[in-house]
UniProtKB/TrEMBL annotation:
SMART domains: SEL1 (SM00671). The keyword Cytoplasm does not apply. It comes from Pseudoduganella lurida. SUPFAM superfamilies: HCP-like. This is Sel1 repeat-containing protein. Keywords: Signal. The keyword Signal applies. Residues 1-24 form the signal peptide.
Length: 164
């Protein structure tokens, strides 16, 4: 998928999330694409479940879809898993897991992408959040988070850069 195609798809999806009229049709389209293996659609289905847009809010389903996309290299889903563990959405609060997912997301987000596609502010947010959560952990928790991040790196494997 080209950067331009990704941009327009993301822009359309963001617009749909902002509009109160976004509903079941948006969810059905994203779900169909997610079930075909599209990681962006998997992330979007997770977001729709997390927000309750077009489908009843269901953090457990959101965690499932974010997990599927994250394990296929989707940095947005990695970050979203960090949020869900940090704030106990669908799972008990687990700052070790949150730190590990934020760390992987910060490592994975493209840092040399065009400003219009992935703004530098978003990259900075990923890096800052990973650092903030890590600093809030005790020594043993920090070590556990680092070990979990290493485990996730092995599980996920190399992440390809976005298609151009």
């Amino acid at each position: 998928m080209s950067h331009l195609t990704r941009f327009w798809r993301a822009a359309g999806f963001a617009l749909a999330l902002c509009c109160a009229s976004a509903g079941a049709a948006d969810f059905a389209t994203e779900l169909a694409d997610a079930q075909k293996g599209d990681t962006e659609a998997m992330h979007n289905v997770g977001a729709l479940y997390a927000m309750g847009r077009g489908v009843p809010q269901d953090y457990t389903a959101a965690m499932d879809w974010f997990g599927r996309a994250a394990r296929r290299g989707n940095y947005g889903s990695m970050y979203s898993l960090g949020i869900m563990y940090r704030f106990g959405q669908g799972v008990p609060i687990d700052m070790v897991q949150a730190s590990a997912w934020y760390t992987i997301a910060a490592e994975t987000i493209p840092k040399n992408a065009d400003e219009w596609f992935i703004p530098r502010a978003k990259v900075a947010m990923y890096l800052r959040t990973a650092d903030e959560v890590r600093k809030g952990l005790g020594d043993s928790e920090r070590a556990a988070a680092a070990a979990r991040a290493a485990e996730l790196r092995r599980e996920i494997g190399p992440v390809a850069a976005p298609a151009t």
